[in-house]
Amino acid sequence: MNRIAISDLTDGLQLEQAFRAADKQLRVNRQGGKYILMRLADRSGVIAGMFWNADEHIFESFDRGDYIFCRCRTQIHNGALQVIVSNIERMDPSEVDAADFERYDHAESDRLLERLQQMIGGFKNVSLRKLGEAYLADAELMRQLQKSAAAVNNHHAYPGGLIRHTVDLMDLAALIGPRYPEIDTELLMMGAFLHDSGKIEELAGDGEIAYTDRGQLVGHIVIGIQMLGEKMTLLASQGDPIPEELRYQLEHLIVSHHGQLEFGSPKLPVTLEAVALHHLDNLDAKLASYVSVMESDVSADGNWTNYNPSIGRKLWKK
Hints:
- By secondary structure, the protein is α+β, with helices and mostly antiparallel strands.
- It has 11 helices and 5 strands.
C-alpha cells in the first residue's frame, strides 16, 4: 500500500503505513488508564497521534526519532486532524524510503546562509562585522544553524527553520531600522542574528525536533549569552576586543527579546533596538505560526479555519 503524506490526510481514513516518531509521552487519563500522546512526522509535516489503553511495554517498544509502522485511523478533534493508533511496530531504517521523511531543504538553507553572510559582511560597524564573522567562521556552528529548528511547536518548527527565522528577522530589521533615525540599524540586525542563537544547542539539531538536556536545564537565552561571551573572548585574544558598552547592548538584546518577564525574558526591553527586536520577532513568529495553522486546517468551510484553541480564534483563509 502506498503511504499517504501527512499533508494529504483527510478525516476518516484507515491507514497502515510508516511514520517517524517525532515525540512521545506516556500519560494517565482521569480514570487512571494510560495512553501515549505522539507527534508523528514525515517530510510534509507533523500530526498528533493517540494510542489509547497503552502500557509501558508499548511505550518502550520504540524511541523518539524511530520509524514506526502504524495501524491507525484519522479523525478530527477540536478542529484539528489527528491519528488514532491501534498498533505500533518499530521499523528498521532500511525498510523505509528516507526521502519520504527528510524535511531539511539543503538548497534553501545554503541560499539563506549566503544571504546571512552578505548582510554581516556589509556592516559598516567594524566591531559588529568582526563579531558576526567570528560566528560565520565557526563551520560546525553554521552547520548546526542551517539544520536547527526555531521551535518544537508553533513557528518555524522544522529543520532549517532557525536560519529561516533569523534571516527573515534580519531583513525586517534592515527594512524597519532606517525609518527611525534614533535606532542603530546594524545593532538591531546583529540582535536579530544573535537573539535565538542558543537554540542551536537548546534543540536537537539532527533527526526529530526535541529539547536537549542542556536546553531543558539552561534554555536558549542563557546559552546564547554564553556563546556570545565565547566569541568575544576569542576576538579579544586576537587583538579585536568588543567595546564594553557594545557588549552590554548585545547582551540586553538577547535577554530581553521575549519582551515580558512572564514570557521568559530576564529583563524587559529598555533600548529602542531591544523594543524593536521584540516586536519584529513576535511579528515574524506569529505570522509563521498562523500560516502553519491555515495550511494544516481541515475545515470544510472554504473561507475560515476551524476554531483554534491555542490562538483563541478562527482565521480567514485567502
